[in-house]
Write a structure and sequence with these properties.
Blueprint lengths: L5 E4 L2 E4 L7 H16 L5 H4 L4 E7 L5 E4 L7 E7 L4 E5 L10 E3 L4 E3 L9 E5 L5 E7 L1
C-alpha cells in the first residue's frame, strides 16, 4: 500500500512517510484530520472582548491579596515593581518559605495555562515598592 498519503490539520499539510502500514492507519489519520477540522474556530471578535483589570498593590512584608478570584480569568500578569523579592501563592497564604512563584525585583510573571482562577496572594521580602497586576477576563 502506498504510504505517501497526505492529510491537513489546521491548514498545514502532512505526509505519511512509511508509517501507514494499512488502510486502517490511513483511516485513523483521516479521523484525526476530520476531528481537527470540526473543532470550533476561535472567533476573532470574541478575542477582542477580553477586559483587563489593572491594579497596583503596595508592597507588604505580610500576606496581601494581589488578585481576587475570577472564574472567567483568561490571563494574569504580575510585574514586581519593587527592589524586594515577591513571593506569590495561589489560594493560600504566601510566605518566603511557602509560595508557588518567585518574582525577582523588577521581574514579570505570566500565569501558566491552564489559568488558575482563584485568589492570588503575595508577600515581599521587605515592604518597598508595589506590584502592577493585569488580570484579563
Amino acid at each position: 500500500m502506498p504510504s505517501n498519503q497526505e492529510f491537513t490539520i489546521d491548514g498545514e499539510t502532512f505526509q505519511l512517510l512509511g508509517i501507514a502500514k494499512s488502510q486502517r492507519d490511513i483511516d485513523f489519520v483521516r479521523k484525526i484530520e476530520a476531528a481537527f477540522e470540526a473543532r470550533p474556530q476561535a472567533d476573532s471578535a470574541a478575542s477582542t472582548d477580553i477586559a483587563p483589570f489593572r491594579s497596583r498593590v503596595t508592597a507588604s512584608a505580610s500576606n496581601v491579596q494581589l488578585a481576587a478570584a475570577r472564574l472567567n480569568r483568561v490571563g494574569l500578569t504580575i510585574h514586581n515593581d519593587s527592589d524586594a523579592s515577591l513571593y506569590i501563592c495561589e489560594g493560600a497564604v504566601a510566605s518566603a518559605t511557602s509560595y508557588d512563584q518567585y518574582i525577582p525585583p523588577g521581574g514579570v510573571w505570566e500565569a501558566d495555562r491552564p489559568i488558575y482562577t482563584g485568589v492570588i496572594n503575595g508577600i515581599w521580602a521587605s515592604a518597598t515598592g508595589a506590584a502592577q497586576i493585569t488580570d484579563r477576563v
